[in-house]
Amino acid sequence: MDEMRRCPYCDEEIRAEAIRCRHCRSRLSAFDPGAWYRDRPDRRVAGVAAAVAQALAVPVAAARFGFIVLTVFHLVGVVAYVALWLLVPFRPGDEPPFARVVGVVRRCAAELRDAFKPRRQRGPGSGPHGDVPANHVTC
Ligand SMILES: [Zn+2]
Question: Which of 38, 55, 113, 123 has the most other CB atoms within 10 Å of its CB?
Answer without folding.
Answer: 38
